[in-house]
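Minutes, project huddle
Topic: does the predicted pose make sense with adenosine monophosphate bound?
PN asked that the exact inputs be recorded in the minutes so nobody has to dig through chat later. Recorded below.
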Amino acid sequence: MEDLKKYIREIPDWPKPGISFKDITPLLKSRYAFNRAVDLMAHPFLEKEVDKVVCIEARGFILGAAVAYKLGAGIVPVRKKGKLPYRSIRASYQLEYGFDELELHEDAIMPGERILIVDDVLATGGTAAAVIELVRKSGGAIIGCSFLIELENLKGREKLSSVEVLSLMSY
Ligand code: AMP
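Predicted holo structure (tokens), as shared on screen:
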């Protein structure tokens, strides 16, 4: 996927020293790269009868909504604690220092529904693992996780070993 990598801007030491931030806005603004990336993220799941795409705040909303449209699926947001308006279930995940929490509306997913999880970057995998926990608590059947970018040295995939993981670009 060298072709699409041209559209990822790496920002060294942002938001803090030692982090190489993967800025996807050049990809999003390109009609070629955005459409190609969404097509490729959705493609393996076209025949999988996905009911809902669970999108992770915030950049996951952009890609997840487009993938859901492509799959003819609905969209469910997972958000940081305190942002969702209705009764929610919660899972905590590890940050570099301490923990944070993610939430999902308690009526977002019905038992047995077929779920695809979408985000922009798979880093340590802590975020996606918490989302998997929320989907499973709701009784959803996880069909897979689709990421635009995977940071391989952080070994996030190991935390998601129970589900199919797809990423378009590796660093
Ligand atoms: P993690 O839980 O460590 O897998 O982190 C994943 C979440 O953090 C995703 O929602 C990403 O948007 C964001 N993230 C982590 N590392 C980066 C990075 N280097 N560049 C851009 N986003 C990142």
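Observations noted during the meeting:
- The mean pLDDT is 96.
- The helical segments are 2-5, 25-29, 31-42, 59-71, 126-137, 156-159.
No decisions taken; revisit at the next huddle.
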